[in-house]
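In pairs, describe these two lines:
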Amino acid sequence: MNEDSWDRLLKIRTSGRDDTGSDRYKYPYEPTPYSVLERLGNSGEIGKKNTVLDYGCGKGRVDFFLSYQTGCNSIGIEYNERFYQTALRNQKKAVSSGKVCFVQQDAAAYQVPAQVDRCFFFNPFCLEILKQAMARILESWYENQRELRLYFYYPSQEYEVYLNGLDELQYEGAVNCMDLFPGNNMREKILIFSLL
């Protein structure tokens, strides 16, 4: 199915890039392709017992899709007021809306709930904010140790260098997405890290 078909099935509107409110710290809204989400959803990494925290959730695509596809609960965190309001409008009609909630807050300050055991990132912000968000994730993990897995789609080189340098993280592999798009782009993957 293509992007519009998935939006129609899920009864949401999430397509199209939007640069509203973006700057050198917080990047534009660009939805994760459904083909990538299908690959993650079918990987066995996420199930109905999991709670996914989607950083920079935008209009809520990742949250609605994963909740629909895997049965997981999902929390979308979004800084941009306009995207947050669109996510709330989507939630009124979405097929998986009962398993999804949204929070409008800066990721750098967001206190990660104890039930969160999966985190998803699609380059929502600069490395400095990622470091602050990771500090909040680590705080939550130290307070309530559990298996916690982190997914980074289309990671930048600076993200990769930083993540591979964190002692607390264990690299678990990658979900290869290069075959989904033309050009053999090495960034077309989802890196998986865990806190154990």
